[in-house]
Design a protein that fits this description.
Blueprint (H helix, E strand, L loop, with lengths): L7 H8 L3 H8 L7 H13 L6 H7 L5 E6 L5 H16 L3 E6 L4 H13 L4 E4 L9 H8 L4 E4 L9 E5 L1 H14 L5 E5 L5 H16 L9 E3 L4 H14 L5 E4 L2 H13 L9 E5 L13 E4 L2 H18 L8 E4 L2 E3 L11
Length: 343
Amino acid sequence: MAIHRASISDLAAQLNLSVSTVSRALSNHSRISDATKQRVWELARQLHYQPNHLAAALRKGRSNTLGLVIPHIDGQFFALVVKGIETVANQAGFNIMICQSNEKVAQERKNIAALLNAQVDGILVSLSLSTHDFQHLDEVRRRGIPLVFFDRIMESAQVSAVVLDDYQGGYDAVSHLLDQGCQRIAHLGGPQHLNICKNRFKGYTDALQSYNCPIDPALIHFSDLSMQDGRDGMGILLRQAPDLDGVFACNDLALVGAMQMVKQQGLRIPQDVALAGFSNELFDSLTEPMLTSVDQRCEEMGQTAVQMLLDMIAAGDQTLTPRHVVLQPTLLVRESSQRNPFA
């Protein structure tokens, strides 16, 4: 049987005191006598009274809650970003409401509506794969609620955001493969309306051009970057360009699928096909061979994004100039790409 949770009005009625007196007693206010405090606290224990901190915060114009919308919690990247966000937010006295869009813009809209209804003090967002229309996010800004993007962002508007230099990460990964002696490097890319995929692809093409390598459409395949997409895409690439000798994948999940297909075809890694990915997932060190990948500084991205949001909330001025922080990537070289350990 459920226990009835008494309200502050219940306490006041039974003690024949005003609600304000009971509230002050529960807060240990100096103007309330010790005897009255004792009466209030004793009855509160008997009736299982629990204060409604959210209601109290809202009366002060704050919920002390931040909203977070992420595409998914799978893999290491978003899990570590969330860890970074929660660490800084909790230290500042804020709770986090976490929503997943599951890569669907319709769910992302519902997430934003739910967070607005919960009267959060600010919102952090990383866009879904299918987000092309931003009206639901424009509504957040129209209401004057602080909004910060991270990783996957709105590029067409002046917004505050924290991103990795995805271009540099892609450029470094492909340059590394070229330095290892690869000449026909394929790319498993993602949706080009997303800033991260577009910038990684640009890094790929620029690295090839800087080494005077032609850009061959037969070596390029775009997908949503699931493991199965990587496997299927690798099969297509091997049929189109059987002489390919390297692969740069836009994320590590697709790279694992590609690796499975390469092995299925009887090719050696890295001797026949060298592999490099992006995200530095936990499983990269568990595969055979271990995967070379670009580290995204996940926790730092989360910490930086939420601190930016907290600064906006503290300022209370929505005319603040949007800030754009770019973190620098690190290429972690492992066995999947090391043809020449001295390069």
